[in-house]
Amino acid sequence: MRVPEMIQAVQGAVQQNRRVTMKDLAEEFSVSKSSMHNIVRKDLKMTKIAPKFIPKDLTRAQKDQRRDVSNRNIQLVKDNPEFLHSVITCDES
Questions:
Q1: Of 12, 26, 62, 78, which sits 20 to 30 A from 19 (CA to CA)?
Q2: Taking a C-beta distance cutoff of 8 angstroms, is the pair 26, 35 a contact?
Q3: End-to-end CA distance of the chain
Q4: 25-67, pLDDT tens digit by residue?
Q5: Looking at domain 4-55, which CATH architecture does it have?
């Protein structure tokens, strides 16, 4: 039952408690877990990372920030080719 009212209500529930489970949402809205999965994943374009739901798509501001940081890093490398020898990377997980 993927109607706009249901989708909007689920979005509100997820925003109130990002740690909610698919099972809890399905029970709260009286739909199957697969229907709830479709609403959350396909309609709301959200995915669960760690125990929280987060939007899959970056906002315009996030995209702009990533572009700006990338451009600054490119300029740093152009100005100082040795710059990359001082960069340390890590994985957030």
A1: 62
A2: yes
A3: 35
A4: 999 999 999 999 999 999 998 887 666 666 677 888 988 999 9
A5: Orthogonal Bundle (1.10)
Residue 41 sits at φ, ψ, to 5 deg, of: -80, -50
d(CA 81, CA 78): 6
Q: When comparing pLDDT for 86 and 51, which is higher?
A: 86
State the Cα–Cα distance between residues 18 and 20, nearest whole angstrom. 6
Per-residue 3-state assignment (H helix, E strand, C coil) for the chain: CCCHHHHHHHHHHHHHCCCCCHHHHHHHHCCCHHHHHHHHHHHCCEEEECCEEEECCCCHHHHHHHHHHHHHHHHHHHHCHHHHHHCCCCCCC
